[in-house]
């Protein structure tokens, strides 16, 4: 009997990664009774990362922390065998803005640092931080403050939250950083290569997504430049041009320059954390997927990462999706043999989203018929 691994990302706005995996597994088992199916929902470090790792066997550890605009939010980190996974989007992300109202000048990453501190206090030896979906452009300053860094203005007062306030930064003191930061392995899931400053930097490229207009982008970039100047003086190393420094409003910069983190592509890092490679050994097939297989998929999104890892073990890969705009040649380039979009089964997009679960089961039956009968 063949062994199949089902490792999809979420179908945004429709199903979580765990729900996608469950429906695909149900369809496969219905088509091939007794089939051995391992479900391993995946994520790339952004929204849905916590759900994915908890579905894979991590335990959820609740934390109350500061939301992006100061209100308390109930969030969590996930832990297994001393490894903690923190999802920035779940505490400092756009989805945590009250009423969905952006506050680009004052939004802060403080809550992310609070969740990290909770994991450090609990004795976790390895910290994995996913930094997609940030609501703030504060260079990670709020995160650093929550972890014990002191940021002062010219009058010796603690700097208020947000990227705009960084223009008034006069002194930083990093001697009080959480002592366990020196002991743990800190890795950041990061899928962009932007520097911190300038036309490709955090404010210019990602500020508009967070509600910043041209004048606010200039303010934020000036604040980030001041923050970078003092961090460079304090640490002796200029990390502003490090690829990924501009990720998540500059959280990537603070993670590397202040906390000593290593940046890694999100899906590759999460596959390691989830134990994908041991699971895929000896498999007859891997089924991956996401809501939309499109041009973005070609640039390292979850299905491409899953396919690359599966191909290392010589395992064929197919994908499910809500829709697919990629050609067979483009899919083959990233190691996917075939795609099964739900729009092939139900052309109405609204019905596709509403009935995604049953449609995935039908797609899985087709996959079993075409890819497993000879296995």
TrEMBL record:
Keyword set, alphabetical order: Kinase, Transferase
Similarity section: Belongs to the glycerate kinase type-1 family.
GO biological process: organic acid phosphorylation
Gene3D superfamilies: Glycerate kinase, domain 1 (3.40.50.10350), Glycerate kinase, domain 2 (3.90.1510.10)
Organism: Thermobispora bispora (strain ATCC 19993 / DSM 43833 / CBS 139.67 / JCM 10125 / KCTC 9307 / NBRC 14880 / R51)
GO molecular function: glycerate kinase activity
EC number in record: 2.7.1.31
InterPro entries: Glyc_kinase_flavodox-like_fold, Glycerate_kinase, Glycerate_kinase_RE-like, Glycerate_kinase_sf
Name of the protein this chain belongs to: Glycerate kinase
Enzyme class: transferase
